[in-house]
Amino acid sequence: MTPVFTSLLETDLYKFSMWQAMLHRHPATQTQYRFLCRNQTAFPLAELASEVEREVEALCTLSFRPDELAYLRTLRYLSSDFIDFLRIFRFQRDFIRIGSDGPNLAISVDGPQVHVMAFEIFVLAIVNELYFRRVAGPDALVEGRQRLAAKIERLREFAAEPPRRHPFRFFDFGLRRRFSGAWHREVLATLKQELPEFFTGTSNVLLARELDLVPIGTMAHEYLQTFQGLGVRLRDHQKAALESWVQEYRGDLGTALTDVVGMDAFLSDFDLYFAKLFDGLRHDSGDPYVWGEKALAHYAKLRIDPASKRLVFSDALDIDRCLNLYRHFADRTQCGFGIGTHLTNDTGLRTLNIVMKLVSVNGQPVAKISDAPGKTMCDDPGFLAYLRQVFGMHSH
Q1: Three-state secondary structure along the chain?
Q2: Which of 153, 158, 370, 372 is 20 to 30 A (C-alpha) from 142?
């Protein structure tokens, strides 16, 4: 059986951008990541442990091929020394532990961040693909294709609406929670062919290369969270992370993620300097309308024209949600929509809500205080309470 992954390029672009920043600025950081499933599954995920182990062993034999490195060199923000590092990079099997904890699948990764941070996307996609091989009937993709056709139809109807000030653009953020690699490719190839005016890119670097799409992504929560354990004052960790990013990319990759400690705390750090330097903001939890209005009010207060900035929405989107948000905001600001599960795993089957989160940095706990209560992540209630207090937030 062919392994789920045969190329290290098949990961999300933001893994490369965060990886480069960490390699250059904090190469000695020690981290722990842990797998978690947040919903009921059709069978105990622990049953997949030995298959996951086999897939991870195959993953650990891969290295970047010369043609893949050549493609990465075409991305102007990736530096040649980082690509030289990738040339010798291999995943090390002894940094990852795979087993079971009762009915649960237990996966933890422990080691230098620059050697372990890239495991996350591969592990999540492996678990998803193995899971759906077992639960999907022969008709799953028949249903998937019908649903995809309905989405395309929906967007064709939308195309007849009068144009707004800024165009509608959406992209694929669905690698980690996809039904399968083959289905992922089919979905993107179909969207590129049928909706070239709306569908512009993907976070999947391999498919971006193969299908000639724009690779999309900047930073994830782990990047900002890492700074909670890097010896800056906790209150200043977001500013330190954003400053570090600006110094690394100098104008490229300018979308900042806002929900590591909530939007209000983010905006209090996102001063005129950052607001001018970053092209826009990404939403990933809480009410997107409230969030977008706060962002636009913040730009207005700083006397920045919101039409020069971009709001990227990426939280549990489907086509209708995207279109409604677009209608609400697109006359005032540029918009982008990163759709995940709804593009790559919409086959009528119940999807997995799985994550692989950063839990500690240099022996210190780190946390995310989400604007959506169920998304808050931290193993240490004491640290979580302290973080809330530092940012003047009330517990809920």
Answers
A1: CCCCCCCCCCCEHHHHHHHHHHHHHCCCCEEEEEEEECCCCCCCHHHHHHHHHHHHHHHCCCCCCHHHHHHHHCCCCCCHHHHHHHHHCCCCHHHEEEEEECCEEEEEEEEEHHHHCCHHHHHHHHHHHHHHHHHCCCCHHHHHHHHHHHHHHHHHHHCCCCCCCCCCCEEECCCCCCCCHHHHHHHHHHHHHHCCCCEEEECEHHHHHHHCCEECCCCCHHHHHHHHHCCCCHHHHHHHHHHHHHHHHCCCCCEEECCCCCHHHHHHHCCHHHHHHCCEEEECCCCHHHHHHHHHHHHHHCCCCHHHCEEEECCCCCHHHHHHHHHHHCCCCEEEEEECHHHHCCCCCCCCCEEEEEEEECCEECCECCCCHHHCECCCHHHHHHHHHHCCCCCC
A2: 158
Residue 286 sits at the vertex; the CA angle it makes with 104 and 298, to the nearest 5 degrees, is: 145
CA atoms within 13 A on the CB side of 381: 2
169: region left, alpha or beta (phi > 0 left; psi from -120 to 50 alpha): beta
Residue 122 has pLDDT above 70, yes or no: yes
How far is residue 12's CA from residue 205's CA, in Å, rounded to a whole number? Answer: 6
Domain range list for the chain: 13-136+353-372, 145-344
Q: What local confidence, expressed as pLDDT, does residue 1 receive?
A: 84
Q: Are the beta carbons of 392 and 234 closer than 8 angstroms?
A: no
Give the CA distances from residue 253 to residues 190, 215, 292, in Å, rounded to whole numbers and listed in that order: 27, 11, 20
User: Superfamily assignment of 13-136+353-372 in CATH?
Assistant: nicotinate phosphoribosyltransferase (3.20.140.10)
Which CATH class name applies to 145-344?
alpha beta
pTM above 0.85, yes or no: yes
Q: Convert the pLDDT of each residue in 130-158 to its tens digit.
A: 999 999 988 899 999 999 999 999 999 99
